[in-house]
Amino acid sequence: MNLLYHLKAVCNSESIKLRGKAGEPPRVCVFCRNNGEVEAVYAAHVLKAPDGRVLCPRLRAYTCPLCGVSGDRAHTIKYCPLSREPPPRKPRPSAGPAPPAARRRIM
């Protein structure tokens, strides 16, 4: 049986949930999902194990050009400890929509 066909069949079954409850880790690989992979690919694995090891085969194969790390501790340039820019912070849950930004006068 074709692996991709099998993955699609498994991912389309109602027994698989792609999102957990708030506060739970995602049940899909957010790296693959954000990089445009098909659902059959990103729903077949998660990005990291609970202990922090990288499980995504695509990210594990990537070698950071700044520090040379791949495998269990693989990361993109954006998350490299040698990068000058800090990684983006997760937004905190809010009670409602954000207030409109204050307007500044430009002179």
UniProtKB/TrEMBL annotation:
Keywords for this protein: Cytoplasm, Metal-binding, RNA-binding, Translation regulation, Zinc, Zinc-finger
InterPro entries assigned to the protein according to its UniProt record, in alphabetical order: Nanos/Xcar2, Nanos_sf, Znf_nanos-typ
Primary subcellular site in the record, as a coarse category: cytoplasm
A single BP term in Gene Ontology: regulation of translation
Position of the signal peptide: none
One term of GO molecular function: RNA binding
Region (Disordered), start-end ranges: 81-107
Pfam families found in the cross-reference section: zf-nanos
GO cellular component: cytoplasm
Keyword Ligase: no
Every Nanos-type domain range: 28-82
Top-rank lineage group of the source organism: Eukaryota
Location(s) in or outside the cell: Cytoplasm
Record family assignment: Belongs to the nanos family.
Protein name: Nanos homolog 1
Species of the source: Eptatretus burgeri (Inshore hagfish)
